Amino acid sequence: MRLIAAMGIAVMLGTAFTGNAQTTKPKPAANPTLTYAKIPDTEVMTSTAMATWVRNNTSNQTDALKAIYAWVGKNIAYDTRNTYDPQYYKDTTDAALKTLRTRQAICYGYSSLFVEIARKAGISAMLVSGYTINGSQLSADGSHAWVAVNVDGKWSLVDPTWAAGGVSGNKFYPSFTWKYFMVAPAIFIKTHVPFDPMYQFLDHPYTHTEIKENNWTAAASRPVFAYADTIAAWQKLDSTARLESTVDRIRRFGVSNMYISTELSYMLQVLDVGRQNAKVMAQNAMAEKFNATTTRYNELVNDYNTYVAFKNKQFTPSKPDAEIRQWVDKMAADAEAIVTGLNEVVFEDGSNARSVSEAKRSAKDMKDRIAEEQAFVTKYLKTGKMFRKSLFYKMSWMGIPLN
Predict the structure, then answer these.
(1) Alpha helix positions (H), 22-121
(2) What residue spans define the domains of the chain?
(3) Under 8 Å between Cβ of 62 and 72
(4) DSSP β-bridge partners for residue 129
(5) What is the pLDDT of residue 81?
């Protein structure tokens, strides 16, 4: 029986974004001075070490977030070299590691590191992606990323990138500010617009068109959006279902600018690749199942051939009746399991499907042969020992078969 090698199919994901710089920002009206716990240099080699220090040296989550915000804002420089290469940071885990190692990042790196430290410190935090506006003017810098944190059941927003400073003439100018620390959602929406309305954290979220038109009254006439329940339900979903629900919400709230369109295209591409990979994984699992079943079939063929050789010698050397019975019954059980296993294997590929069909025919034939041997053994064991030898050959008397 020909085996099918497990299929290895690599599906590459290519992403396309419209910038990710966020090099410009509204000028802070004031830069309040807040006291905070300073993370020592000895504790900043890993996000885990930082989180542990913060957790052990602050009295509450707000103070812990102050320490994280201040360290990230004062120690990470803006990566002007990779400003328009967002895929360089799109993997959040890699982005956090890269940001901590190089001490520079674009918005995804700043936010990914912030979220990772906060979560390890036991604080609920999420990375949010969207775009920014200044009045009715859409930012020309592309998409942006920031952070949502939940303290005492209340969501607020943090922008560690804008906290660090700004860029002018392709040069980063550090200018730390507390203005973007734990801002109320109703205020943050005036400058930071998430692609997914769930991350507005508002009972009456605005559509992208309403935000573009500075229409801050229309949303109040719509039913309340239970964002807390939506987030709770979303968190219980697997990664694919989460992305599908996000795409649905984005579409319902309107694709009104190129940043939303680009992000939506990226998400749909991720979903498509995910479905392709899931299909590949399913087919690989089928190949593994088929290979395992055919290996078991080959073992059964060897066992059956050994049995046939034993039968051809008229069951000599002698074995106990119970052992012979157990032998053929086990072969029958194995044959049944093999047939069942092959019936569960389904391939979309034509050549693989034909191989499965061939294997099924061979397994069915073997099952039938073993069934015949079961019947023979049953008859053999019911026959008196003096007459058993006659069962191994056919004799006839006057043309009438005696067996």
Answers:
(1) 47-57, 61-75, 92-102, 107-120
(2) 41-278, 291-391
(3) no
(4) 145
(5) 83
One DSSP character per residue, 341-373 reads HHHT---SSHHHHHHHHHHHHHHHHHHHHHHHH
What per-residue confidence (pLDDT) applies to 82? 74
Q: In 40-58, which positions are buried (b, 16+ CB within 10 angstroms) versus exposed (e)?
A: eeebbeebeebbebbeeeb
* Axis-axis angle for helices 107-120, 47-57 (nearest 10): 50
- Token pair belonging to 71: 């360290």
pLDDT in tens, 207-226: 999 999 999 999 999 999 99
Sort 116 into a burial class: Cβ within 10 Å, 0-12 / 13-18 / 19+: buried
Q: How far apart are CA 189 and CA 212, in angstroms?
A: 11
Residue for token digits 């000895």?
42
Task: Please give the pLDDT value at position 265.
Answer: 93
Task: Give the pair of three-digit tokens for residue 275.
Answer: 């479905």
At 56, phi and psi to the nearest 5? -90, -10
CB 54 within 8 A of CB 68: yes
Phi, psi of 138, rounded to the nearest 5 degrees: -75, 135
* The pLDDT value given to residue 9: 27
Q: By C-alpha distance, which of 223, 272, 222 is closest to 244?
A: 272
How many whole angstroms separate alpha carbon 199 and alpha carbon 193? 9
Is there a contact between 164 and 28 (Cβ–Cβ < 8 Å)?
no
CA atoms within 13 A on the CB side of 328: 24
* Strand positions, DSSP E, 152-232: 154-158, 165-168, 171-174, 192-194
What pTM was estimated for this model as a whole?
0.70
Structure tokens at 53: 């220090």
Does residue 318 surpass a pLDDT of 80?
Answer: yes
Around Cβ 308, how many Cβ atoms within 10 Å?
Answer: 12
Instruction: Look up residue 23 and give its two tokens.
Output: 């090099």
C-beta separation of 401 from 394 below 8 A? yes
Cα distance between residue 111 and residue 22, in whole Å: 13
- Let me know how long the chain is: 403
Structure tokens at 60: 């509450």
User: How many C-beta neighbours within 10 Å does residue 312 have?
Assistant: 10
